[in-house]
Each structure stands twice: as structure tokens, then as C-alpha cells.
Amino acid sequence: MRHKTREVTIGDLAVGGRNPVIVQSMTTTDTRDFDATIAEIRALEEAQCEMVRVAFLNKKSYDSLVEIKRLTKIPLIVDIHFTAELALLAMEAGADKIRINPGNLGGLGKLDKILEMARNKGVAIRIGVNSGSVEKDLLDKYGYPCPDAIVESAMRWVEYCESKKFENLVLSLKSSNVQTSIQSYQKISKLCDYPLHVGITEAGMGEYAKIKSAVGIGSLLTQGIGDTIRCSIVGDPVEEIKTCYNILKSTGVRVLEPELIACPTCGRIQIDLEKLVHEVEEKMKGIKETIKISVLGCPVNGPGEAREADLGIAGGNGKGWVYRDGEVIRTVKEEELLDALMEEVDIWKQEQVKNG
Ligand code: SF4
Questions:
Q1: What spacing in Å lies between the alpha carbon of 250 and ligand 1's midpoint?
Q2: pTM of the model as a whole
Q3: CA-wise closest residue to 172 among 233, 121, 210, 216
Q4: CATH topology assigned to domain 259-351
């Protein structure tokens, strides 16, 4: 069951509460470079990114930031470190949320000004604590940035914001260590109900980064923890979005497209399964419904495996079987299997429409 959090509004998007887990990413461009940054945002929007973060390093990015905000359809988060004045400028430029580490902005007086302006403008703030930003006194107390230190640091800032009557908060407690991240999020989810932005920071490159993100974010999502997610992967941020949606789909937390289940094949294989899986995958591309389809290499486990899916197919020795809810509903020639499946998908879709 999902951990109960309060709802926070970011631009026109509600985060936390009963709202879907939101997918976000961050641009890799220099924000001063308007053309490159807006091109990346366009690509992210196209990939169904729902919130985008840009870095705001210095005042030279201000004009570009104003223009980026004007042309960005999804909520814009601005990431600020070290200079409180930039947080004020980001809000002036129209940021829907700012991401800060309150400990590195030059003192509480400066933080107070940020909170006041955010309150007046209805801007949300993400307090982003990670293992590298834990304060010295907490490092002395705990010896290293362990989950307790990360959580105490975050709660310290939460309590400070609350004392200033500012509660429009989202929290993140990322570490590049999966276990530290998981334990930190588990602990803080017991201490407060602010929406949690979940991720594994600096996950690395390529396949390993995707697996690391999936293990960390996926573990938390299966425990009902996480209101927005980001995969931190080196390279094109569109890959982050694809990975986020695959994590949401594989955990069953948010499914927006068909799911294909395929057996890994084994010595019992009696059909060119790889070719068949690719063909089914191609056919699934135009389908918006969240149908689950299994493709199996032989009838041995067909009924059992297909029970997990809405529709399934298995083939062998020139024959093919179409399953629905685990029961064989059609037996066809092997070469007719794909067409038979697609006919049954159409029937399934029509029934969904009829049944509302
Ligand atoms: S479905 Fe058949 S071919 Fe596929 S893994 Fe299972 S036993 Fe092997």
C-alpha cells in the first residue's frame, strides 16, 4: 500500500497524496544556451517527462531561464546551490519549484527570504539532502553519512521550514549507495508526510545505471514509498524517462502501455520465439490499453504462465495456441498465431470499451 503523503502543487501538477507517481528528469545543457536547453526539454516532453529541472549556476542564465519557462509546457524546477540570490531570481523567472540544499545558501537569514518569496508566489521547494551534503556536526555525531545522519539533516530543515510556516515541501534523500538510499527513505517516510522525490544519485552509465536505479527506486515503490522519481543516468536524459516508466510498469505502480511477458526459452523451445516476440512488440506499439500479453515458446507452461496475462500465445510443432485468462480459446497453424492473437486483442479492447 502506498505511503500516505500530503498533496503539494507544482505548477499545474499535483504531487503526493493519491496522485500518480510523477516522472521527472534534468537537462544536461548549460542553461545559458537557450536553444540547446529548450531542445532537450522538447525531447523530454515528447518522451512524457512530467516535470523538468534545469541548473541555475549564475545570473547570466536569467534571460534564458525566463524564456525557457515561457516555452516549457511541463512544470519547471530550478536547481540552485550556494547562492541564495539565485533562488530569488529563479522564482522571479517563474520557476514552479526550486530545489535547494538549505545548508549551503549562506545562512538562515537568506533562507528566510527564500521561504517568504516562495510562500508569496506559491512556489514549492524541494529540500534535497544527499550523502555529500550532510552537515559537519552530524558527520561528527554519526561518523559517516549513514541513513540516520541523512534523515536527521533533512528533518532539521523540515522543522525549520515548518517553524517559518512554510510547508509547500518535497523531500529527497539520495545517495549513490542503494541501501543507504532505501533506508533513508524508509526512515523519513515514518517521520513526516511530505511527498518524497525518489532516486539513486549518480547511478552511472548505461545498463548498470538502469539496473541500479531500478533496484533502488523499484524497491521503494514496492513498499509504497515515492511520489516522484528520477533515474540519474549519464547521457541523453530521454533514457532516464524510458527507464522511469519501465520501473513504474514492472512494479505495477503506474502502467500506461501494454506489458509483454515472454519466456526466456529453454531446451523445450519449439518455435522461433525471439522473432515472434519482436513481432508482437511491434504490433503492441500502437496500443494504448494496459493489456498484458504472454508469449511462450512451448505449451508446457502455457496455461499456468498465461493465467498471469490477459492474453497469451504458445507455439510448437507447427501449431499455435491462444490463451485467455489461462484457458486455450483457439488452436491455429503456427504461421497464423500472430494474426489470431491480434484478433483476440481487438475483441479484448472492444470488451473493455463496452464494460466502461
Ligand atoms: S515456456 Fe517452454 S520454452 Fe519457454 S522457458 Fe518455459 S518450458 Fe522453456
A1: 21
A2: 0.92
A3: 216
A4: Sulfite Reductase Hemoprotein; domain 1 (3.30.413)
* Cα first-last separation, the chain: 25
- Which ligand 1 atom is the nearest neighbour of the CA of 264? 5
pLDDT, one tens digit per residue, over 187-223 is 999 999 999 999 998 888 999 999 999 999 999 999 9
**Cβ partners under 8 Å of residue 322, min gap 6:** 311, 312, 313, 328, 329, 330, 331, 332, 337, 340, 341, 344
Residue ranges per structural domain of the chain: 8-251, 259-351
Mean pLDDT of 81-91: 96
Angstrom distances, CA of residue 1 to CA of 20, 99, 172, 217:
13, 28, 20, 16
For residue 78, give the nearest of 23, 111, 20, 118 by alpha carbon: 118
Ligand 1: residues with CB < 6 A are 263-266, 268-269, 296-298, 300-301
Q: How far is the CA of 203 from the centre of ligand 1 (A)?
A: 34
Query: Which residue, among 159, 190, 254, 230, has the nearest Cα to 3 in the 3D structure?
Result: 190
Cα(309) to centroid(ligand 1), Å: 16
The CATH code of domain 8-251 reads 3.20.20.20
Q: What is the pLDDT of residues 93-131, one digit of tens each?
A: 999 999 999 988 889 999 999 999 999 999 999 999 988
